[in-house]
Predict the 3D structure of the following.
Amino acid sequence: MDCIICGKQVVNENNRLQKKVKDYLKTTSELDVKHLWIKQWKICYDCSESYTNDNLVDNSEVLQKIENQKKRKKQLGKAKRKQGPLGETRAYYIERYIDYATCKAEQKGQHMVKPPPLINSRQYDAAYIAYVKSSESTAVLIVRDMVKDIDTKGKWIDVRHMEKRFLSHSDEDFSFIIVELFSRKQKPTYPKQMAEETNSDYKNRIAYITWQAATADIHDQRTQGIKGDVYIVLPCLKNEHESTYEKHYIVWDNSHRHFKRVRESNQYVNILKPPIWRYDIFATKQINHQQLRYIEKNLYQIIGKIHKKSAVTLSIFSPQKKKGLHQN
């Protein structure tokens, strides 16, 4: 404890203070204010020597010192509460804040390729809702909007195969995509936007009509035995903010017992920036239907080879020449 007058630490083992109380009790059975404070460790030995009981009770100068000391203690208490816990407890709460802020940053991550969300999904059939939520819709957008080597103008894109990258946390991270392109023989009719319809709802309705036309047109052409151009695409999902951090200035919120982010502070933690995702296209290749049949027949073996390799190349989709065989 600290002395209420000078602020000096009162040592509990100070025998001189204990002796003062014992000597005083020999003369009277009741302690005065001075010796009661000595017994309660409220004043230090030096102050007990400097002031008599009357000084402590009636002296305005001493009372002012006591009041000033109380104010200093109150200010120190506020400063400690603002600083927050110390040691292992502080590290624990900071770790909790880092986990929370990192999770929030992940949720704020932006995908450069993403189908429009269905706000009013009741007006669409189950097959289209499943398509929009699936990785297939993302694969179509990648081929349509990001692969420069494939001309998709006037074409329907039909995803024949797509494989999620091995051990990736994202369903939109593909190791390869195989698509077949069909000419647009059916021309969908698009209605005008209704007055009560939002731009987002109208875009969803147009996308739905396009999907219906594409599904029907591809089915009809397959029924007639028509085959389209087939391509292999090797994309790679990249985070533009990978291993980059931003400073979160934090203060201790004593009322809620946690750290919170503020605009200005003398303490901060480094948090990973919200990811911004993009696709790099490593390679594209047009293949014929004989090569497609080989890939479909050996798909499990090809996927097994991909899992063993850190980087996927187009050569893995071709038949491997056996070693030791030479043509004469």
Observations:
- The beta strands are 110-111, 155-164, 174-183, 229-239, 245-253, 258-261, 268-272, 276-287.
- The CA atoms of residues 2 and 9 lie 4 Å apart.
